[in-house]
Amino acid sequence: MKILVLNCGSSSVKFALIEAGGGDERIVARGLLEPVGSIKGTASCELPGGDRHVRTVALPDHNHAIRAALELLVEPDVGVIGDWQEIEAVGHRMVHGGDRFHEPVLMTREVAAAIAECAILAPLHNPHNLSGYFASLSLLPQAAHVAVFDTAFHQSMPPRAYTYALPHELCARYRVRRYGFHGTSHRWMAERYAELEGRPVSELRLITCHLGNGCSMCAIEGGRSVDTSMGMTPLEGLVMGTRSGDVDAAAILQLMQWEGLTPERMDILLNKSSGLYGISGISNDMRTLLEHAARGDERAELAIEVFCYRIRKYLGAYWAVLNGAEAVIFTGGIGENAPEVRARVCRGLDALGIRLDEERNRAAVGREMDLSAQGARTRVWVIPTNEELLIAREAFRALREGGRKTA
Ligand code: ADP
Q1: 93 occurs within a structural domain
Q2: pLDDT tens for residues 197-225?
Q3: Does residue 236 sit in the same domain as residue 327?
């Protein structure tokens, strides 16, 4: 079955065409349309062999952007499909499903309305995700449309993990609580680890680390998320590329007063000017920071240290939450490709049975691998993630389980 995966943001549309079925997915093409909102944008598409096709197109809105993606896919030069009709399903990445969605769902009018209601929790994401859905529904009415939520996997968290210690009625009124994100990625790490170990996921206690531009960790018991580091929004928890992660809320209030910052300006400061970039003043890119730190740059070094220390603190916390774990798993651009970061995170954790094999850690760049030293009690793995493949897999699963109806 050919599934088109769409990730629609405010100024771009990422897409991937995936041949899916029975856990054996294959990327046929992937691409990017940007900037949406421009009359002179770029549509690009890359094939697995490395062939890249780029066109200049008008991208005034999501409808034109998705149409441009489909036109590119049927171009004889690109040649991946003959006709749009071949696309049987569309998997939509939806950022926030609130407490309403525990799993991927077939899109209907009611589902779209419920996602729109969650927009108050993710005003920068859900409206664009939905606009992409309506655009693709009009272009591909024959396809089944499935929403796959970043938040769904974490809906299994117990109240003690998702409740903020703020006035309870106020939180209930505005649905303020921890939701968590990167759910498809955390779920994939747990399921893949179980597959690699040949054991049911229901028997396992795992700590998963998704370290990309956005970073989050998850405590997983029996295949279910029991705690995660991101909160009501993706700002909380670990240090990220440009997001602060945990900060004393009182410090934020003081800064707003001292600098005369509006909530909108503070939001930008916390989400776009903080994290690795904020500490180092150099870059949000871990590669660049590792290079600067190796040349003796103190701010780059500090940024990496704060980043790794925060992960270690969460690791300790989740160790207590789970009463021990049998594996720690890394994924994401940093988790998969930065042995130095993994080494710093895992150093001095012998008490938890964590010891890396240095050679294996160095060799594990962008590939699935067990990094643990021989005899170490706790496994440490790299399990690469691929968001588009996972969305296609979850969409396929939802269709198989839920029948094939469209809105
Ligand atoms: P996103 O969250 O946007 O999907 P990625 O998962 O691609 O981001 O992760 C991006 C991060 O991964 C950047 O900080 C980048 O520097 C880092 N990264 C990618 N390759 C390497 C590498 N070889 N060494 C260190 N960091 C890397």
Answers
A1: yes
A2: 999 999 999 999 999 999 999 999 999 99
A3: yes
The pTM of the whole model exceeds 0.70: yes
The Å distance, Cα 26 to ligand 1 centre, comes to 22
Report d(CA 108, CA 328) in Å as an integer.
38
Are 368 and 227 part of one and the same domain? yes
222 CA distance to ligand 1 centroid (A)?
Answer: 29
**Helices and strands of the chain, counted as H and E runs:** 15, 14
Catalytic residues: 150
Q: Is the four-CA dihedral 254, 260, 263, 265 of positive or negative sign?
A: negative
Which of 334, 341, 342, 385 most suits a substitution to test ligand 1, by most atoms within 8 Å of the C-beta?
334
Residue closest to 160 by CA, chosen among 309, 315, 320: 320
Structural domain containing residue 255 = 200-387
Kindly state the average pLDDT of the residues 114-137: 92
Query: Bridge-partner residues for 328, per DSSP?
Result: 207, 380
75 CA to centre of ligand 1 in angstroms: 32
Mutate to test the pocket of ligand 1, among 150, 213, 283, 307 (most ligand atoms within 8 A of CB): 213
Q: Is 118 helix (H, G, I), strand (E, B) or coil?
A: helix
User: Domain of 124: which CATH number?
Assistant: 3.30.420.40
Q: In terms of domains, do 132 and 221 share one?
A: no
- pLDDT per residue as tens digits for the range 102-112: 999 999 999 99
Q: Which of 337, 365, 383 to mutate to test ligand 1, by most ligand atoms within 8 A of the CB atom?
A: 337
Instruction: Give the residues surrounding ligand 1 with Cβ less than 6 Å away.
Output: 212-214, 241, 285-287, 290, 332-334, 337-338
> 118 with 223, same domain?
no
Local structure of 174: helix, strand or coil: helix
121-125, 148-152, 271-275: least confident range: 121-125
Q: How far apart are CA 57 and CA 356, in angstroms?
A: 49
pLDDT digits (tens, 9 = 90+) for 159-196: 999 999 999 999 999 999 999 999 999 999 999 999 99
CA of 307 to the centre of ligand 1 (A): 14
The total number of structural domains that make up the chain:
2
